[in-house]
């Protein structure tokens, strides 16, 4: 194996924190297994269709609430109609630990109760354009976990999808949290680095990203 070059925890913008190598290899492996299970149903992993008719290049499956551009529902109305699996307790606990790691505020972290997660898989061509995560009714932080191939994560500003932005390399095991003044910052994935993953995660190819959110729906 290549020697690991330490990367530093960094505040990318107010409320936006990158914590490299946050997940252990064993945790990454366990998450890959869980995502593989979710991807097989009851709701299939699919490339969501945008209102204009074109499909996204990433494939997505959700837990807790089903997301389609641009709303949340309990049933996957654009993907077979089944009810999505409940949001698991272990993922709530992981979300709280992530918030503690990012903000060092255990009290706020203990109140964090994500109720949806979007699991995105990027093949070697997949990208995600600059967008805001704004279909949630509340503005609790978004917790993002990356597994598999590295990527460029472009983290911008709350006003426009263009500059100023910061390009951050997200590697397998990295945590990125954005909340507070950065909660509605535009962000996207202009590029992945195919073949950079350690196969020990169990992910055969591509990049997996999990974002936990609080919908504010009931
Ligand atoms: O893949 C990523 O790192 C970001 C995913 C994302 O922004 C989203 O699902 O809304
Ligand atoms: Fe997003």
TrEMBL record:
Residues at which Fe cation binds: 131, 133, 187
GO biological process, one term: oxidative RNA demethylation
GO CC list: cytoplasm
Cofactor, how bound (note): Binds 1 Fe(2+) ion per subunit.
Source superkingdom: Bacteria
Keyword Metal-binding among record annotations: yes
Cofactor(s) needed for function: Fe(2+)
GO molecular function, one term: oxidative RNA demethylase activity
Domain Fe2OG dioxygenase positions: 113-216
Record keywords, A-Z: Dioxygenase, Iron, Metal-binding, Oxidoreductase
One Pfam family, short name: 2OG-FeII_Oxy_2
Name this protein carries in UniProt: Alkylated DNA repair protein
Gene coding for it: alkB
